[in-house]
């Protein structure tokens, strides 16, 4: 399948590590921006639709995870974590790291303690996170949108179905991949780890995303590639839709709470009507 072209619009953080943070006024106005007409001539970026989103109380909305759900970046994160751990003298098999991608940093630290027996203090945690970010940013230029990701988001925008992104990553690592998707931060809420107290499997990221859209979380469908996404969807009382594109199996996702499982965003778009994606 032909991969979507990269967006030429600079958004968030570049691979060179330059951080473009959002001002408080922009962060607080995501919902309003999503409802404003696009007054810019020419083509509209993903997430800005003339007339805005008309959200009814029971209308289906979609809340997306990012890594492994919309972009093919899971294994980039795995290798970045392996490099960071080895720099700190911590040996951990790649498959064990993969099983923890998408969970909160606190749980990841607890996992390290259980599986290595090492004491992981706050200073070491910060150092590991910095090393991971540096290693990931060196790899991020090869991250691509998953098949059908841009088309899926464009379809939702075009048909007036609200959507948002909620990721356990921080903006410093999420920025480059948001750029590849062409997501317009003026019109679409993007909730990162920096903005909530607890990450997955706690539901805070998705609850915040729903609040930014101004919708009831119980009318939302949470789309993710990991068991941590599905556990968070259950705790939020939303519907969980699993994708196989992050490396977890169908049975694992279903046991964690997914009521539908698709291969990737392209297959989800093909069957979008069976998960309430109708106008």
What's this model, at a glance?
The protein contains twelve helices and six strands.
Written description of the protein model:
- This protein has 279 residues and is of the alpha/beta class.
- The protein has 2 domains: 24-72 and 143-275, 3-Layer(aba) Sandwich (Rossmann fold), CATH 3.40.50; 74-139, Orthogonal Bundle (DNA polymerase, domain 1), CATH 1.10.150.240.
- It contains 12 helices and 6 strands.
- The chain has a 6-stranded parallel β-sheet, sandwiched between helices.
- Helix 3 crosses helix 6.
- It is globular, with a radius of gyration of 18 Å.
List the helices and strands and how they pair.
Elements lengths: L23 H5 L1 H5 L26 E4 L9 H14 L6 H5 L6 H12 L5 H18 L9 H10 L4 E4 L4 H11 L8 E2 L12 H10 L6 E5 L2 H10 L2 E5 L6 H7 L1 E5 L2 H6 L9
Parallel strand pairs: 1-2, 1-4, 2-3, 4-5, 5-6
What distinguishing features does this structure have?
6-stranded parallel beta sheet; DNA polymerase, domain 1; 279 residues; 6 strands; alpha/beta; disordered N terminus; single chain; 12 helices; Rossmann fold; globular
Q: Characterize the biggest β-sheet.
A: 6 strands, parallel
CATH class of the largest domain: Alpha Beta
Radius of gyration: 18 Å
Number of domains: 2
Q: Which consecutive residue ranges, at least 5 long each, have pLDDT under 50?
A: 1-44
The outline comes out as globular
CATH arch. level architecture of the largest domain: 3-Layer(aba) Sandwich
What name does CATH use for the topology of the largest domain? Rossmann fold
Q: Secondary-structure element sequence?
A: HHEHHHHHEHEHEHEHEH
SS field, number of helical segments: 12
Helix content: 40-55%
Report the count of strand segments.
6
Distance between the termini: 27 Å
Q: Strand share of the residues?
A: 5-15%
Chain-averaged pLDDT: 82
What structural class is derived from the secondary structure elements? Answer: alpha/beta
